[in-house]
UniProtKB/TrEMBL annotation:
Signal peptide: none annotated. This is Mechanosensitive ion channel protein MscS. Pfam families: MS_channel_1st, MS_channel_2nd, MS_channel_3rd. The lineage of its organism: Bacteria, Pseudomonadati, Pseudomonadota, Betaproteobacteria, Burkholderiales. It is a multi-pass membrane protein. It comes from Turicimonas muris.
Amino acid sequence: MPTAAELELQKVVKATHSAEDLLAGDHNILDQFMVMFEEGFFKPIIYWQLLSVIVPIFIGWLVFYWLRKKTLNAYAQKLAMEHLEKSQRIEGITDEEGAAEKAKTKEELFWLGIKRGLFSLFMSICWPLVSLFLIFICTVTARLFKLLPQQPLPIESVVWLILCAFVVIRVCVFIIHHSFRAGRAASSLESFISFSLWIGVALQVVGVLPKCREWLESTKFALGSSDVSLWSMLLSFFTIALALFIAKWLGQLAEKWLNSMNGLHTNLKVVLIRILKVALMFIAILIGLSSVGIDVTVLGVFGGAVGVGLGFGLQKITSNYISGFIILLDRSVKIGDLVTVSGVEGIVADIKTRYTVVRAFDGSVTIIPNESFVTGNVKNTSYLSGPGRTTVAISVDYSSNIDDCINTMNDIVRSQPRVLINPAPYTILTNFGNDGIDLTSYFWVADPERGTAVLRSNISRAILKKFNEKGVNIPFPQRDLRILQMPEISCKFETGTPAKAAPEPKES
C-alpha cells in the first residue's frame, strides 16, 4: 500500500507533464503552474521543488561572488598587465634586436589574448553554469529520496530555460564581440539576439511558441518540385547565420594566429588567411544547408553555372582576383614595398583579393587593380634587399675651383647618417653647360624604401650653404637685350577749330 506522502506525490504528478511534453507544445508551462499549485499548494512537494531550485541558485551566486573576489579578479588583472607589458615590449623592440624577438613576442601576445578572451567568457557564464550544476545535483538527490517525481516539474523547467538562455546569450555576445568591430552595428546585433531569445523563452513559458511553430510548419511554399515550409526556411536562415558568425570568428582567430607566426612570409600569411576564410565560409554554408535537410549536391550544378558566368561576364573582376593571388604567391610585390605603378608612387599598404592599396608620401591612398601589377610595368624599389644609389646634381660658375667644389660636396654627402661609407660616395664633373659646370654626387643608402627625397634635400641645402660661405657662384640663365637700330617715329599734329556737331533732330 502506498503511503500518504506517495499518494500526494502521485496526485501532483498527474497535474504535471514531462519536460519533453512541455517543450514540445502539448501543454504550456504557465498552465502547469496553475494546475500544480491548485492541486497541491500546501503540499511538501511544492516546497521541495522550490528549495531544489532557489537554494542552488543562491549558493551558485555566493560561490561565484567568492571566487570573483578572491581569485578571478586578481587573475584578470594579472592577464591584463601581462598583455599591456607585452604590447609595450613589441613597440619598444628595435631593428637591432631583430625581427625574431618581435615575432616571438607577438605569438606570446596572441596566446595571451586567447587566454584573456576565454577567461572573460568564463567569467560571464560562471554563475549560471554553477547554478545549473547545483540544481542538477539537488534535483537528483531529491529524486533519490523520493521527494520529487522522476519527471521534471514546471519550476525546474522554467529555471533551466532561463539559465540556458542566459548562457546562450553570453556566448553569442562573446562571438559577436570578437567577430565585429565595436560600433552601432555590433551593439544592435547583440541587443537583437538578446531580445529575441528572451521573447522566445517567454513565449515558450506561456505556450505561444509551440503554436507559432505549428503554424509555420503548416505554411508551405512551392520551391521547384517540392514544398518548403516557412519554419524550415527560417530555421535555415538562422542556422546559416549562426554558422557564418562562427566561421567569421574562427577566421579572425586564425588570422591573428598566422600573423603572430615567425616562420611564414607576409605574402604567404595573406594567402593562407584569404583561403582559410573562404573555406570556413563555404563549410559554414554547407553545414547550415545540410542541417535543415537541403541537398548540397545541387550546388555542384549551380556552381558550374556560376563559374561559366564568371568566365564570360566578369572577366575583369575575375582577372583581378586571380592576379591578387599571383602577386601574393610569387612575392613580386609585398606589403611595405616602395613601388611605382600606373604613374603612382608610394608604399604598398595592403594587398586585397581584388585590388592593392598604395599610400603616397603626401598621405593620399590610391586603389590600383591587381591586374595592373601583373600585366603592366612595375618599379619596385624594395624588391631586392640591399642599398640603393641616388644622386644630387648642381652647377657652379666657370670661374670656380672645381677640385675644391668636388671635395666639399663629398664631405657633405659623407656627413649624412643614412649615406653608406662603403661603397664610398663620389662626385664627378658630368657636363659643360651653357651657364656653368655640372657636378653630380653619387651615393648609396641602406634603406631606399624609406625614400630619398628628404635626404637629397638636406644634402642640397648643405651644399648651397657651404658654397655661399666660400663664395662659389651658382649660375642661372641671364639674357641681355641690345637694340641695334631704332626706327624713326614721325608724329603729325593738326591745328584749328574743331567742327561743330550736328544738332539732334527734335521729336514732333
